[in-house]
Design brief:
This protein is an alpha+beta fold and 344 residues long. 46% of the residues lie in helices and 23% in strands. 22% of the residues are buried.
Length: 344
């Protein structure tokens, strides 16, 4: 619930929610509460079956009261479909007398003035207005939706566009060196501890850092052969030199965590410059044992039930005006973990 409330405190979320609620309420009002109702439609705009029924009633009325002007007027209300409908009624009289149909047809066709069979002027005008209204509504609604989305999109871009673009660029920039580091790490082979006369490790992990990967942090879970969670190990950025981007990393934090006893062993892997710098050493010595990073150097880490050897597989420094050997360009660290055999 608190997370939801936190989201609604954001202007972007509130604005989007307001637009969505407004559209939903508008649709409910327009379709359920106060829908558009069409009344007094002209005969010419009825369905063909209803026009035919209208013609049958007109013929029946004429049979009972032979009013020629009224018959002609009613026939004219059918518009250009009058003749076709009259033929359909004559083909299937149903409850009408065929002679009555012929008499009605003779009356309306003999005395029908020029222009009959078309919709009356006032009816046509009304129909045109109705059709025009529908047409306007048909294109106005999509246009209004597009305008609304445009306004909302413009507002989002105006207030958040630069921030979103900056975040996207930051992620893209960070992804490139991270990918390059993974590719570089794939060129190296794992240490074969069996060939060295040792037991094979339970797990082996490889972490590759490349300058520009400002969010570099790798963590790996350690499990027993039966799937029991034993702990974790990892590496991350600990200390940098100066300011600006990309980060100028001069020290990494390497750790081994045991879940059973909540014990953690930590080492600080340092560049030559930071390892020899008294101020940096004092700043970081409380983080764990300080270790100079050199190609092939090892970090031995232990807890009550876990043992890990970290080996620097490859590394290099990036050019730096203040410290030639102070900023890592890349670092590849292999971590091999064993589960200790503890006496019962």
């Amino acid at each position: 619930m608190d997370a939801i409330r936190e989201q609604f405190n954001k202007p972007l979320v509130m604005g989007a929610a307001g637009v969505l609620v407004g559209l939903i309420l508008g649709i409910i009002y327009a379709w359920l509460i106060n829908p558009v109702e069409w009344t007094d439609a002209a005969v010419v705009h009825l369905r063909p079956d209803l026009q035919e029924e209208y013609l049958r009633m007109a013929i029946e009325s004429y049979a009972q009261s032979p009013d020629a002007p009224l018959a002609i007027k009613r026939f004219g209300d059918l518009g250009e479909n009058g003749d076709e409908l009259l033929q359909a009624v004559a083909a299937e009289p149903k409850n009408l007398n065929i002679e009555t149909i012929r008499a009605y047809g003779s009356t309306v066709q003999a005395q029908l003035p020029s222009g009959a069979g078309e919709a009356p002027a006032d009816t046509g005008s009304e129909a045109e207005e109705t059709a025009a209204g529908r047409s306007v509504l048909g294109w106005l609604l999509p246009v209004m939706c597009v305008i609304t989305l445009g306004v909302v999109g413009g507002a989002v871009y105006l207030f958040y566009g630069k921030e979103l673009i900056a975040r996207w660029r930051e992620r893209s920039t960070a992804a490139a060196p991270a990918g390059a580091a993974r590719v570089a790490g794939q060129k190296y082979e794992w240490t074969d501890f069996t060939a060295l006369g040792e037991e094979p490790p339970l797990f082996q992990f490889l972490s590759s850092y490349q300058i520009g990967d400002d969010r570099f942090e790798h963590q790996f879970d350690i499990e027993s052969p039966s799937g029991e969670f034993l702990g974790s190990c990892g590496i991350g950025i600990l200390e940098t030199l100066g300011v600006g981007e990309p980060k100028k990393v001069t020290a990494f934090e390497v750790w081994l965590f045991e879940a059973k006893s909540a014990q953690t062993d930590t080492k600080v892997l340092m560049s030559a410059h930071s390892y020899l710098n008294e101020g940096i050493r004092k700043k970081l010595e409380g983080k764990g044992e300080l270790v100079l990073a050199e190609q092939g150097s090892e970090l031995v880490m232990q807890t009550n039930s876990l043992r890990m050897i970290g080996r620097v597989v490859d590394m290099s420094y990036a050019p730096n005006a203040l410290a030639a050997d102070g900023v890592f360009d890349h670092l590849i660290l292999e971590k091999s973990v064993w589960q200790k055999v503890t006496p019962d």
